Amino acid sequence: MSVINVIDRIFGSRYVLYLVLIIALIYPLIFPIGIPIQISSRTLAVYNYIQHLKPGCHVYMELYYEVAARGELEPNAIALIKQLFDKGCKIVFVSTMSTGPLIFSLLKSSAPDVFANKTYGVDYVFLGYVSGGEAAVASLAKSIKGTVTVDNYGNPVDKLSLLKEVDKATDFDLAIIVSSGTDTFNYYVRQWYTPYGTPLLFVALSVIAPSIEPFVSAKQAIGMLVGQRSAAEYELLVGRKGLGIASMDSQSLSHFVILIFIIVGNIVYWSKRLEAKKAKGGGR
User: Fewer CB within 10 Å: N-end or C-end of the chain?
Assistant: First the structure.
């Protein structure tokens, strides 16, 4: 049996392709490789902006997304939180979506190393779910303590050390909006940026990026991070391998496997065709 026939028997089975492809998809998700990728200028601009915030700065972060959107949004949020905590910044988390408490719990469980040396109430606070949509966003901008009386865990907000330092939109150096919907970005532009001038950073799903691009172009937001690609780039910048890098590794490796099968398949096809042509010519 010729080498070509052996290769044909191995690579010609769809089950071999499925098996190799499954391994290529799953392995990097469990053990991220960190395949080099180019950092976009947009991602680098966001990173540099945060690097230039003063140590100990105060940041507000809205977590407005459902579990289905975790794959794209959570890696970005975790990478941003790591950078902010590394700078000694303090974060007030809030969600105007009812899934917020679950989302925050999942976020913390996905990044125990990021929160490991941080003290609740001093370095970060989670206000929990605040209902009311845009009205709630406007109220939080005017006064957090005037909007909520207790945090997500039932602690009185006026007893929390961090909330003695900040209370309204103008007290924050940056507001980060992590959202799977477009309306939330509009709310913060109207209720935080326009009246108070609070710098906004958007973190969005890839599919809605075109809808919020005008805000960035108009300088109503300092920038935006979009999807798993931005997450992977940001994880490389902050030095923490997470789901963003793992997802890019998985995509890259699976694409490589498919290309190899296409190349080998073509080599086998044309080799066998050439052999058949020679055999036919020899028979004459």
Answer: C
* Rounded CA separation 245/37 (Å): 9
For helices 243-283 and 70-86, the axis angle rounded to 10 degrees is: 130
The neighbouring-strand residues paired with 212 are none
Q: How far, in whole angstroms, is CA 112 from its chain's centroid? A: 17
Q: What is the pLDDT of residues 235-267, one digit of tens each?
A: 889 888 766 676 777 777 787 888 887 887 788
Name which of 75, 80, 82 is nearest 114 in CA terms. 82
Element (H, E) at 200: strand 200-204
Q: Under CATH, which architecture does the 41-240 domain have? A: 3-Layer(aba) Sandwich (3.40)
pLDDT of residue 244: 66
Scanning the structure block, which residue is given the tokens 């005008």? 214
